[in-house]
Automatic annotation (TrEMBL):
Lineage top rank: taxon: Bacteria
Top-level taxonomy: Bacteria, Bacillati, Actinomycetota, Actinomycetes, Micrococcales
Chief place where the protein resides: membrane
Pfam families, alphabetized: FecCD
GO molecular function: transmembrane transporter activity
Family matches, as Gene3D superfamilies: ABC transporter involved in vitamin B12 uptake, BtuC
Keyword Secreted: no
Protein's recorded name: Iron ABC transporter permease
Subcellular localization: Cell membrane
The keyword Transport appears for this protein: yes
Entries under SUPFAM superfamilies matching the protein: ABC transporter involved in vitamin B12 uptake, BtuC (SSF81345)
Keyword terms, alphabetized: Cell membrane, Membrane, Transmembrane, Transmembrane helix, Transport
Similarity field: Belongs to the binding-protein-dependent transport system permease family. FecCD subfamily.
Polar residues compositional bias, start-end: 8-20
Length: 363
């Protein structure tokens, strides 16, 4: 009898036991296997390095690995290969920055919305940026990339602010479903206005269509310098939201039980997402599928912990963008296929495979 009572007492959770009440933030999440995580991290870094080297070496004029290394260790301005490598550096840096921003923003957006199919378009960011650029071209005659950057950033921020304000109305606040619905509705409305402007002005259409498809070509250090402060701020803010997103993944009620201010957490995360998406869209145009596919690939070896998903998404996404850009440069010589088209061609089949094989479990 005493043995039975003792066993029963041992089975009752005490106030200090892990099963009593709410667990510490992030401890409800299954930990990734250390070997798998280490191997995945090493693979991501290797793929990123290979993508950077390929971006510098391949194009209309391919450069050998020897000349590529000499361009950095013993640069000769009179050497054509060295000059080609250095001319590709701004393009590669653009791909690194835009890819990191899109990958990190996509992972954070899926965490905020708790929707595995969320991407930067869910908050109307791309639609807002595109309409702002079209308005600048049509009304003010802006045709330079430096002008597009500020217009796209302001349009993206304004659109996301409108979406969040609309979704915040009502007793429940900005729930994931309301955010998605508000973003879809605003994107449809802004898209209609955009096409209305384009069909009335051929000059605007000609100027806008090269930016709309998304590309890394034609970007210089001036364009990178104008966007860099915003990108760094967005990377810092969003990169520090891993624990917040882990709590939000447990549900709003569970997050409140852990002492987290859900509305404030979602607002901070959304701010970082807007800054990243707006900056990346301004720099490289609206590029699809990068922020959608990469977080699913990363989860395969990190598990659901956003403290690992966020940084690794920021490392792997540039590899996809640079790889797509490099592939677009070599398949249509002497011309090239824009990176935005290539990411859609590469990303769509990969994402379909991920959905079919992993069932895209809800977040």
């Amino acid at each position: 009898m005493k043995a039975a009572v003792s066993a029963q007492e041992r089975s009752v959770p005490t106030a200090g036991s892990p099963t009593a009440g709410s667990r510490a933030p992030g401890r409800d999440l299954p930990a990734a296997k250390p070997r798998r995580l280490a191997a995945g991290t090493l693979l991501v870094m290797t793929v990123l390095l290979a993508a950077c080297l390929a971006s510098l070496a391949f194009g209309a004029r391919p450069v050998g690995i020897g000349a590529l290394l000499e361009a950095f260790t013993a640069f000769d301005p009179a050497n054509g290969d060295h000059a080609v490598v250095h001319s590709r550096i701004p393009r590669t840096v653009t791909g690194l920055l835009a890819g990191a921003a899109l990958g990190l923003a996509g992972a954070a957006m899926q965490g905020v919305a708790r929707n595995p199919l969320a991407d930067p378009g869910i908050l109307g960011v791309n639609a807002g940026a595109s309409l702002a650029v079209v308005t600048g071209i049509y009304a003010f005659g802006i045709t330079q990339l430096s002008g597009y950057i500020w217009l796209a950033f302001l349009g993206a921020a304004a659109a996301a602010a409108v979406v969040y304000t609309i979704a915040s109305l009502g007793r429940e606040g900005a729930t994931p479903v309301k955010l998605a619905l508000a973003g879809a509705a605003l994107s449809a409305g802004l898209g209609s206005l955009l096409h209305a402007v384009l069909v009335t002005s051929r000059d605007t259409l000609e100027s806008f269509r090269f930016w709309q498809v998304g590309s890394l070509s034609g970007r210089d250090w001036d364009a990178v310098g104008q966007v860099l402060p915003f990108l760094l701020a967005g990377l810092l803010v969003t990169g520090c939201t891993g624990r917040l997103l882990n709590n939000l993944a447990l549900g709003d009620d569970a997050a409140r039980g852990l002492g987290q201010q859900v509305a404030l957490s979602r607002a901070v995360s959304a701010l970082g997402i807007v800054v990243l998406c707006g900056s990346a869209t301004a720099l490289a145009g609206p590029i699809a599928f990068v922020g959608l596919v990469i977080p699913h690939v990363v989860r395969a070896f990190t598990g659901p912990d956003y403290r690992r998903i966020l940084p690794l998404s920021a490392l792997l996404a540039p590899a996809l963008l640079l790889g797509a850009d490099t592939l677009g440069r070599v398949i249509a010589l002497p011309g090239e296929v824009q990176a935005g088209i290539m990411t859609a061609a590469v990303g769509a089949p990969v994402f379909i495979w991920l959905v079919r094989s992993r069932k895209a479990a809800g977040l």
